[in-house]
Each structure stands twice: as C-alpha cells, then as structure tokens.
C-alpha cells in the first residue's frame, strides 16, 4: 500500500524527478508517453495547481510514484458536471521501483482519495494506441468510456465507478 501525500513547494522537485525519470525510461524503451517539454518544472507548474499534485510514498516514507488529481477536466471530459469525479493525470512510477505493483498501489491511493472526497468516479485519459496501458488500467477495474481526438493526439477515456 502506498500513502498519498500532497506535493508542497519543498517536495515539488521530488515530483518532477520521479516524473522525468519515468518519462526518460519510457522513451528509452521506445514507449514515450509524454513529450520532454511536458514534464519540465515550468510546464507542470503552468498546467497544474500545486494542490492537485501527489507523491505516493511507501510506508517507510520513500517517494516512488506521482500523480495529479483534478476536480474537473474540461479538455477531455467537457460534458461532466462539477463534482462528478476526480481526474487522474501524470501517474508515474520511478524506474527504480517499477515492476513491484506500485502503479496499482498509486491507483489505490487515488481511489481512496476520491472516495474520501465523496465522489462517485475516478476518470483518466491515456494514449489510444497503448494496449499495455489499457490492460494496466482495465486490470484495476477501469472501464473504457470512449475516445477523444485532441489535435494530433487520440486518447482513450477510462472511468472507475466507485458509487
């Protein structure tokens, strides 16, 4: 089990380090998910409020994963009314800790926070052409809810119903 901790100005660099290391590892495996310019400190600070960012920690306090939880996501879920879900972004596990179940554990932390806030659904988008990621989310219980084309990108939408 991982413990979710809000990112602070003091831990923002840890969030960036984990996200960047994960992005580089994916790129090295030929599975690039994020463009390098989308995981810089400036890009993350511009795109996300600090209070949306989370570190996922082991019980010993080691940060091993990241994610962001948004209260609304009009870019990918424009028809959702306010208060209908939390929206997961930037889920990443540091390469030194991959393959140990921390991805699902981080999803568990996001699910617990969604339930604690009294929301009925956790939603996300992921690349349309990534069957490995689709299986990962589906194995956790997420259900495909369609696709959205955003300029050159096509994404698959997923929802985990909690009600």
Automatic annotation (TrEMBL):
Keywords: Acyltransferase, Transferase. SUPFAM superfamilies: Acyl-CoA N-acyltransferases (Nat). InterPro entries: Acyl_CoA_acyltransferase, Bact_Acetyltransf, GNAT_dom. GO terms for molecular function: acyltransferase activity, transferring groups other than amino-acyl groups. The keyword Lyase does not apply. Signal peptide: none annotated. Residues 10-163 form the N-acetyltransferase domain. CDD domains: NAT_SF. It holds the Pfam family Acetyltransf_1. This is GNAT superfamily N-acetyltransferase. It comes from Deinobacterium chartae.
